Amino acid sequence: MLQPKKSKFRRQHRMRSQGSGVATRGNKISFGEIGIKATSAGELNAREIEAARRAIARAVKRGGKVWIRVFPDKILTAKSGEVPMGSGKGAPDKWVAQVLPGKVLFEMAGADKDLMREALKLATYKLSVKCKVIDNQL
């Protein structure tokens, strides 16, 4: 699964307020012919990204090329069950990527257009944010 090799701090603030607005960077297809674009804000964890990548690879029978345009670089913490209040912040639990509406998450090229569209459609079911499949309009 995706995660940084090293991070400066073990724990981060949640910063849920950063989920407002729309993506101005990474909102166009740059590498492939077809892609998945987020239509809602949220956090994608590393497991979801990997599950979507596997769904794409399986659907196109490992043909074509896939670009993953998001990286989970933010740590979320969790306390174990029935722990009383206080005693500090929880242990690192999972890595997430913050996603804004309009952000391109995956791109594909090098396979049949209908096959790629179907593969990306299957991948959207694995993600926790609402998405749509888009084409590269030149």
Write the layout of secondary structure elements.
Elements: E1 34-38, E2 42-45, H1 46-59, E3 65-68, E4 74-78, E5 91-99, E6 104-109, H2 113-124, E7 131-135
Antiparallel strand pairs: 1-6, 1-7, 2-5, 3-6, 4-5
Helix pairs in contact: 1-2
SSE order, as H and E? EEHEEEEHE
Any idea what the radius of gyration is? Answer: 17 Å
Q: From the coordinates shown, what is the CATH architecture of the domain at 42-78 and 91-138?
A: Alpha-Beta Complex
Tell me the name of the CATH homologous superfamily of the domain at 42-78 and 91-138: Ribosomal protein L16/L10
Distance between the termini: 33 Å
CATH class of the domain at 42-78 and 91-138: Alpha Beta
Q: How many runs of DSSP E, i.e. beta strands?
A: 7
Overall geometric form: elongated
Structural class: alpha+beta
CATH fold name of the domain at 42-78 and 91-138, please?
Answer: Aldehyde Oxidoreductase, domain 3
Q: Mean pLDDT score, rounded?
A: 93
Q: Which sequence of strands runs across the widest sheet?
A: 3-6-1-7
Q: Percent of residues in beta strands? A: 25-35%
Number of helices: 2
Helix content: 10-25%
Write up this protein.
- With 138 residues, the chain is of the alpha+beta class.
- It has a domain of 85 residues: Aldehyde Oxidoreductase, domain 3, CATH 3.90.1170.10.
- It is built from 2 helices and 7 strands.
- The strands form 2 sheets. Strands 3-6-1-7 form a 4-stranded antiparallel β-sheet, covered by helices on one side. Strands 2-5-4 form a 3-stranded antiparallel β-sheet.
- α1 runs antiparallel to α2.
